[in-house]
Specification:
Elements: H1 3-12, H2 14-48, E1 59-62, E2 74-76, H3 78-113, H4 123-138
Antiparallel strand pairs: 1-2
Helix pairs in contact: 2-3
Length: 158
């Protein structure tokens, strides 16, 4: 298999395409949140705090020399950092709410399909369980209760 065809097969997988779509949407969402924080949330907070523009807050470590063309200002810009923290909290809240919504939808689907019902073992698993119990009985041991199988539809798809 050539490297080009192998790469094409890799890209055509559903998981890779889903990941790419998620990254693109995430980048666009980041721009929306940045605009929300910088242009909607922080101006009223600054206004209520006496007309303060938080993005311009900084601790100056070395002043800029007006006699030179080079920018020599060295500063810790904690106001911009505060804006970034608020952006992160908004994104984290949105992701939390999205996961909460997905979990709610899954629970509703499980209720409709009856996923809480006791799943049956496949014929192979039933036979292996019977063999195990017979071997334990021959050794004078108690049979082992079978492990609970995982509900279908929660694993990764290939």
């Amino acid at each position: 298999m050539s490297i080009v065809s192998e790469f094409r097969e890799f890209i055509a997988r559903g998981n890779v395409i889903d990941l790419a779509v998620g990254v693109i949407i995430g980048a666009a969402f980041n721009n929306i949140v940045k605009s929300l924080v910088d242009q909607v949330i922080m101006p009223p907070i600054g206004y209520l705090a006496g007309g303060i523009d938080f993005s311009r807050y900084q601790w100056v470590l070395r002043e800029d020399n007006p006699d030179t063309k080079a920018v020599e200002l060295v500063a810790i810009q904690y106001g911009a950092f505060l804006n970034t923290v608020i952006q992160f909290l908004i994104v984290a809240w949105a992701v939390f709410m999205l996961v909460k919504l997905i979990n709610f939808i899954r629970r509703e689907q499980d209720k409709e399909t009856g996923a809480d019902a006791k799943p049956t073992l496949s014929p192979t698993d039933a036979l292996l369980t019977e063999i195990r119990d017979l071997m334990r009985a021959q050794q004078g041991l108690e049979p082992v209760t079978p492990p609970k199988p995982k509900p279908p539809g929660r694993g990764r798809s290939k």
